[in-house]
Specification:
The chain is built from 13 helices and no strands. It is mainly alpha-helical. The protein folds into three domains: 32-117; 126-219; 227-282, no CATH class. The chain is elongated. The chain starts with a helix and ends with a helix. 27% of the residues are buried.
């Protein structure tokens, strides 16, 4: 009987010891689910959630090499994704991804030295992408000869960031190209095309005040060019009118309005000739 009691007490003691040890041992929490989740977000292109999940894992397990390694690789892959869009000249998504990295930079700044980019690089790359988007946006208008729209697109970007020397150089180059196009048209006596080049430069010249000394032309030279265009086209229109070619005269006067739309004298001449033309057709 004593032996049975002793055995029972021994088993009870062993059970209590095991139970106590189990309760005392901290429950191990794995970081692998968080790593797996961050990689899933990365594959889905949800870069914000990928960074947030990596950061959560890092805050909970700062000493785990696998956690930091995953964080670094995730940031690198996000940056690579932005670069692929940038190199493909698909600038809007590139800007969006760079912005995600910039907005979250304070989360990972303490180990940013282990990354192949830093805050300044991201800022510069974002600026380059915005400039690239401007170049692409203005190109169709400039190639079509719509210098008004082309200049407006460039000017909007310039006003956003007037201290960007690289963009300013590109802007000045575009303005010089437009002036040369006007001069070439004028030399060929294509006065309407010359006027459509000079006028948008003239209308925006006050916006160029800060870098006007860097331009090869002045407001005065543009005024002189526009005067020649108006005068020569006016002479041609009047000659056609006197030959009773009313439709031809109206067409030439309308050319003047393409670069001088508020010219009341020309509008009146068109109105008069149009009334006369209708009477003739009756």
């Amino acid at each position: 009987m004593k032996r049975l009691i002793g055995s029972g007490l021994a088993l009870a003691g062993l059970f209590l010891a095991i139970f106590a040890a189990t309760c005392a041992a901290p429950k191990k929490v794995s970081f692998y689910p968080l790593i797996s989740r961050s990689q899933q977000y990365l594959r889905e292109g949800n870069f914000q959630k990928a960074i947030e999940t990596c950061d959560t894992a890092y805050q909970k397990f700062p000493q785990a090499p696998a956690v930091l390694d995953n964080y670094l690789k995730t940031l690198q892959e996000i940056k690579n994704s932005a670069e692929r869009s940038f190199e493909a000249k698909d600038f809007p998504p590139a800007i969006k991804i760079y912005s995600v990295l910039l907005n979250n930079y304070d989360r990972f700044h303490e180990f940013a030295s282990a990354l192949p980019f830093n805050r300044e690089w991201l800022i510069g790359r974002t600026r380059q992408a915005r400039n690239g988007m401007t170049f692409l946006g203005a190109r169709p208008a400039l190639e079509a000869g719509d210098f008004y729209k082309g200049i407006e697109i460039y000017k909007a970007r310039y006003l956003e960031n007037p201290d960007d020397g690289e963009f300013l150089a590109a802007f000045i180059s575009i303005l010089e190209d437009i002036k040369r196009a006007g001069d070439a048209a004028l030399a060929k006596e294509n006065f309407a095309s010359a006027g459509r080049a000079y006028d948008p430069l003239k209308k925006n010249i006050q916006s160029f005040e800060k870098f006007l000394p860097s331009l090869s032309f002045s407001e005065k030279s543009l005024d002189e060019g526009l005067k020649i265009c108006r005068t020569e086209l006016g002479k041609k229109a009047l000659a056609e009118y006197r030959r009773e070619n009313l439709a031809g005269a109206i067409s030439i006067w309308q050319d003047i309005l393409t670069f001088d739309p508020e010219n009341l004298e020309v509008k009146k001449a068109i109105e008069t000739a149009t009334i006369q033309l209708k009477k003739i057709k009756k």
